[in-house]
Design goal:
235 residues, mainly alpha, 3 domains, 7% strand
């Protein structure tokens, strides 16, 4: 039996080994609703798949950003129930981007080690178009560590270099417009507060705004693509 993504299902011990957590932690997260229940396989053995791996990675990233378990519960509860492992990977990449500075300068060998695969010149060009990897001095590269894993996954998506550049331009322009309007909206709320209150509000609002924007965008894009595929199939 294989999972929906064609991957062999994992036992709870294999899931723990792959994600670097203990079996006890996996069970605890399951009891708190942070992980969906496993499928039940032969001999009533629980079978875990890519979604469980992706959720554990997201939980780990949220913890590294200083979120408490109760805050993580609220965060995961607000996510749409139909998110795929890839959707969860996007959320994890966004969460990683909350860190003040995730850009490192590394050698080509280290870059490929982190990417988990050899990178051809065309791959580096595509990662550059995504603003994930930039050439530095000599044989070194500046890499956005928070987005590298997602960028590498997108290398296998059949999009041209030009399409990636155009998509980045669209996303950048609309993101700046949304950020400007939200800043204007919140400005009146913080006008009478002192600097410490403003900093505290910003820290709390950042993950909430990012999650809201990301979830709304994913739903909208899915609806657009679904309508496009349906419409093209009727021609």
């Amino acid at each position: 039996m294989t999972t929906e993504l064609g991957e062999t299902p994992l036992t709870i011990d294999e899931l723990a080994a792959r994600t670097g957590v203990t079996v006890r932690t996996v069970r605890f997260y399951g009891s708190k609703g942070l992980l969906p229940p496993p499928a039940i396989g032969p001999r009533r053995v629980g079978q875990y798949g890519p979604e469980h791996v992706a959720r554990l990675a997201l939980i780990e990233e949220l913890q590294q950003q200083g979120m408490t378990l109760s805050a993580i519960e609220r965060y995961l509860r607000q996510l749409p129930a139909d998110l795929t492992p890839h959707d969860l990977a996007i959320h994890r990449a966004v969460v990683a981007s909350w860190a003040p500075d995730t850009v490192d300068t590394v050698s080509r060998r280290e870059l490929e080690r982190r990417a988990g695969r050899p990178l051809a010149p065309g791959d580096l060009e595509r990662l550059g178009a995504m603003n994930v990897v930039m050439e530095a001095e000599g044989d070194t590269y500046r890499v956005d560590s928070g987005l590298l894993r997602l960028g590498v996954q997108l290398l296998d998506v059949p999009l041209s270099h030009e399409a990636i550049l155009a998509a980045r331009k669209v996303l950048t322009e609309h993101s700046r417009a949304a950020a400007h309007e939200l800043a204007q909206l919140f400005r009146g709320e913080v006008a009478e507060r002192d600097a410490r209150d403003v900093k505290s509000l910003s820290a709390h609002m950042h993950p909430w705004v990012v999650q809201a924007l990301l979830t709304t965008f994913q739903r909208s894009l899915r609806e657009e693509l679904s309508g496009w595929v349906t419409g093209s199939g009727t021609d």
